[in-house]
Amino acid sequence: MVFTPWAVKYYFLILKPDYVGYIAWRGLQPFAILANNPITNSELSYYVYEHGHSVAFSIMQSEKYLNWLIYEKVSATDLANLLKDKNGQQHSHSIAPGLLTTEHLQHLQQLAMDILPENFAKTICKTTSPFIQAIHELNLDKHRQNRLILLGDAAGVLRPHIASGATQALRAAISLRETLQSNNTIDAALTEWESKEITARQQLAKLAEIMGDALVLNSPSWQQMDQAKMDQWWKCMMQGRQWYVTDYEDAN
Ligand SMILES: Cc1cc2nc3c(=O)[nH]c(=O)nc-3n(C[C@H](O)[C@H](O)[C@H](O)COP(=O)(O)OP(=O)(O)OC[C@H]3O[C@@H](n4cnc5c(N)ncnc54)[C@H](O)[C@@H]3O)c2cc1C
Predict the structure, then answer these.
(1) Is domain 18-136 given the CATH code 2.40.50.180 in the classification?
(2) Residue of the nearest CA to atom 44 in ligand 1?
(3) Tens-digit pLDDT profile for residues 31-75
(4) pTM
(5) Ligand 1 mean position to 96 CA, how many Å?
(6) How many Å apart are CA 126 and CA 181, to the nearest integer?
(7) Within the chain, what is the greatest distance between any pair of CA atoms?
(8) Ligand 1: nearest atom to the Cα of 155
(9) For 93-118, what is each residue's pLDDT tens digit?
(10) Ligand 1 pocket by C-beta < 6 Å: which residues?
């Protein structure tokens, strides 16, 4: 979701998020109605298929939900057509729950049945209000204009593969507090904070881009993979970087 309040528009007008060439079909299904479905046995499930992958994990809101995503490549030219909702309204980045057309739902259900295990596909088909998120990225090289600063989602948009939006917002806020405490002037603190922020976000943006490329845009031929090839593929993708979800460390 892209958050553009008036100040961002005013000071950072020239920058727009770029569409990266794929969308995510998304949905939430309460655990309560998934009783005995094997998909609930795992906190995080990955499914891979030709040219993409799907992920499902549990989240807590008022109750426990299965949060699922299916990535699908959609060309920039086809995107505008896809982002028309059931009322004929054109969207630029997403279609909200409840607004998918019958054609959207049929396509999603067929896609799920074609690429996913039956129990997961059926879960997707039964989800009441799936939605579409067109994947965009925006990596700013400026987070500050005098004493106006951008942090969290306002400071940029990364591809969702590294699931870092919430932690980045928190990290930036904590870092701001610490930097303000350790500097004598606000301006000196903001200069230091912006520099640290840009470095931290650029590293994450690169990882998000690499993962999107490896998992969706140029994924390997999964059928040909064994454990050794998977290990090698992961090492190449991470290139020594670390991701909090895994404890893999690249020796090279
Ligand atoms: C569907 C979806 C799934 C996601 N999954 C994950 C995930 O698994 N892991 C992860 O780390 N991140 C995830 N994210 C991203 C994460 O939610 C965001 O990156 C994070 O919430 C950003 O925090 P923020 O404080 O910058 O913005 P927000 O959480 O959006 O907070 C902005 C706040 O400002 C308020 N606001 C807006 N305009 C005004 C105004 N004019 N006046 C006053 N208040 C205003 C809004 O109501 C909101 O409360 C997901 C996002 C989406 C949309």
Answers:
(1) no
(2) 5
(3) 888 777 777 777 788 898 887 889 999 888 888 899 999 999 999
(4) 0.86
(5) 15
(6) 51
(7) 61
(8) 26
(9) 999 999 999 999 999 999 999 999 99
(10) 1, 3, 5, 26, 152-154, 163-167, 169
